[in-house]
Amino acid sequence: MARKTNTVSEDIANIEKEIGQLMADIETRVGRLNTLARQSATDAANGAGELVSDAVNGAAERMSNAAERVRHGAQAVGDDAARIGSDTLKRIEDEVGQRPLLTLAIAAGIGFLAGMAQRRH
């Protein structure tokens, strides 16, 4: 019977040894999982930072392009206004050159009406 007791003791010792090895293996694997999780979190944070940076840069570029288009549009409107003003002045000059007396009479009439309006006040 001592033989069986000794065998049971050896079996218990072997089981305890295996459990210890399993625990060490589990601790090693959990450690590796933690390391991988930290790396994944760092990679995810870096990826998120890059994603945000790309989005902000893209938005800034689109806004810059839009501002450039507005600038060109404003310049075109200004050029058109200057051209129209210049054309109008040329037409007035032509009319004044062709009908100087009529122009003088119209200017005198407008001056007279303005003077009369001011006298009432």
| Unreliable segments of 5+ consecutive residues | none
How many strands, which pairing sense, and closed or not: the largest β-sheet? Answer: none
Q: What does the average pLDDT come to? A: 80
Q: Based on CA inertia axes, which overall geometry fits?
A: rod-shaped
Strand content: under 5%
Number of helices: 2
Report the span from N to C terminus: 137 Å
Q: How does the helix and strand content classify structurally? A: mainly alpha
Question: What string, H for helix and E for strand, traces the elements in order?
Answer: HH
- Radius of gyration, rounded? 47 Å
Helix fraction bin: over 70%
Could you give the count of β-strands? 0
